[in-house]
Amino acid sequence: MLDVPKFHTDLFTASGWTSGGGGTFATLNPATGAPLAEIAAAGAEDVDAAVATATETLHGAWMAVPPSEKGALLYKLADLVERDIETVAMLESLDMGRPVGIGMVLVSNFIASLRYYAGWADKINGESIASYDYFGAATHTYTRREPVGVVAAIIPWNAPLMILGWKLAPALACGNTVIVKPAEDASLSILHLASLVEEAGFPPGTVQVLPGHGPVVGEALSLHPGVHKISFTGSTEVGRRVLRNSATNFKRTTLELGGKSPQIVFDDADLEAAILGLAMGVFFNQGETCAAGTRIFAHRAVYDAVVEGLKGAAEAQVVGDPFDEATTLGPLVNAAQRDRVLSYIEKGRADGATLVTGGAAPDRPGFFVQPTVFAGSNDMTIAREEIFGPVGTVIPFDDDAEVLAMANDNDYGLAATVWTRDLGRAHAASAALQAGAVGVNGWSPLGPQLPWGGVKASGIGRELGYEGILANTEAKTVTVVL
Ligand code: NAD
Ligand code: MN
Fold first, then answer.
1. Is the pTM higher than 0.90?
2. Does CATH number 3.40.605.10 belong to domain 11-257+458-481?
3. Where, residue-wise, is CATH 3.40.309.10 in the chain?
4. Ligand 1 test: best mutation among 154, 216, 367, most atoms within 8 Å of CB?
5. Where do the CATH 3.40.605.10 domains begin and end in the chain?
6. Which one, of 166, 169, 163, 171, lies nearest residue 189 by Cα?
7. Pick among 3.40.309.10, 3.30.565.10, 3.20.20.30, 3.40.50.80: CATH of 262-447
8. What percent of the chain has pLDDT over 90?
9. Local structure of 432: helix, strand or coil
10. Active-site positions?
11. What is the CB-side half-sphere exposure of residue 133 using CA atoms within 13 A?
């Protein structure tokens, strides 16, 4: 095991590291259940103070930094995260339980987002638009793309830095100031990042981090009249509340919520590649993945092979210590999440699904659940609700129209995967699926260039790519009568 770094556990504000008005709270190591750190919790008054400083910095020190230099600061931050990549990947593993090697991949995505938007910082341009005359006089009209203002980023525990990158990088590149609210279960990597923001030399107040409780800090941010945009990633239930709260002052609201993504294996698929991808879709990050492909539709002709293949992939997972290099599946984030997943497994059994493999918590300390595969149908609870654990259900189908209808018969619409060698079928299915992203012959390709977000109960708005620039700016139309 690597050396454990010093934990940052305080609030990070314009005046540096401070304790919060909300007391402290404990974060646990999910691999053992033992206390890991005591973190300062922000109170509502800390939110007020942070919004006041973020507002001042927005119109002052941060606005005064020329666009190219904003980009240079983002590049510098990326280099610092890269320097500390092992530390931050380790902090996330300690805090939320995933194997460190997978953490390195997700932190690399964070670095990539910083660099992608660093390049955008001095390329955010308005347009010149031909328009009507004004009482016979010609006009000249152009648009300015201005920052939205003070942005609040509310982050879940399953991929803290990666998801923060989708919000922080475009917000800063567009000239906004940002207040970050990490999840209670995983604040440590984001607090380390705050120390790198400080080291990179961003003007104080440009980025602030307020750890604490969702119903206190998240609630205050989503209600605050000084916050202009909320970018929230988390559960559908809390997302609905954030959207309602944000109506106080019509905040721009981006919601990245839950999913129950279908993976469709047609009878002409490359089965070996498909099974590899299906397994990743179900077991990556312990299944604590918004895009988890937990509804696996297999054509009747390949159904048995898919069930057998997925069973093999589940049984090949190495469940264990996130710091052991052989481990592919760590513990779930906390005891409540483990119990929730186990209760879904019980529901699966009660609904009459066939347990193919797994189905229990291994006998060891920590919050582990065995990789689990069911054979079932699309109307069972395990195929309808987000489980957020290593549990997948394989469902048979007979033809294309039937499977596309089943795939769309769900409240969520985040991602989908299609496995086929038939190009026409791949495009037709991609068009028909109600989802924010479709992967053909690959599970969940993700990059800062690719817009990300959901439809239906999976959220509203898009992050990443040029969509991320549009979501972090307001267009102002200026018309000059000549
Ligand atoms: P959660 O909704 O419980 O918490 C998310 C964040 O919201 C946390 O920081 C929490 O403290 C905060 N929060 C809680 N109550 C709040 C309130 N009243 N007002 C404002 N903020 C509040 O979600 P979670 O359990 O941390 O994360 C898992 C969920 O996130 C899953 O549903 C998963 O699908 C979703 N997710 C979605 C994406 C995506 O891109 N669509 C990515 C990752 C995770
Ligand atoms: Mn934790």
1. yes
2. yes
3. 262-447
4. 154
5. 11-257+458-481
6. 163
7. 3.40.309.10
8. 98
9. helix
10. 256, 290
11. 4
Q: Averaged over 280-285, what is the pLDDT?
A: 98
How many Cα atoms occupy the beta-carbon half-sphere of 365 within 13 Å?
7
Instruction: Give the mean pLDDT of the chain.
Output: 97
Which tens digit of pLDDT belongs to each residue from 448-479?
Answer: 999 999 999 999 999 999 999 999 999 999 99
Ligand 2 centroid to 29 CA: how many Å?
6
Query: Which residues are CB-contacts of 157 (< 8 A; sequence separation ≥ 6)?
Result: 95, 96, 183, 184, 185, 186, 333
Name which residue leads in pLDDT, 445 or 99.
Answer: 99
Separation of CA 254 and ligand 1 centre (Å): 13
Ligand 1 atom with the smallest distance to the CA of 183 is 9
DSSP 328: S
Angstrom distance (rounded) from CA 151 to CA 390: 33
Kindly list the protein residues whose Cβ atom lies closer than 6 A to any atom of ligand 1.
154-158, 163, 181, 183-184, 214-215, 218-219, 222, 233-235, 238, 241-242, 256-259, 290, 386, 388, 414, 454, 458-459
Q: Shortest CA distance to 174 belongs to which of 149, 199, 203?
A: 149
CA of residue 468 to ligand 2 center, whole Å: 29
Does residue 44 carry a pLDDT above 50?
yes
How many Å apart are CA 390 and CA 345, to the nearest integer? 10
Distance (Å, rounded) from C-alpha 321 to C-alpha 454?
33
What is the reported pLDDT for 4? 67
6 — pLDDT class (breaks 50, 70, 90) = confident
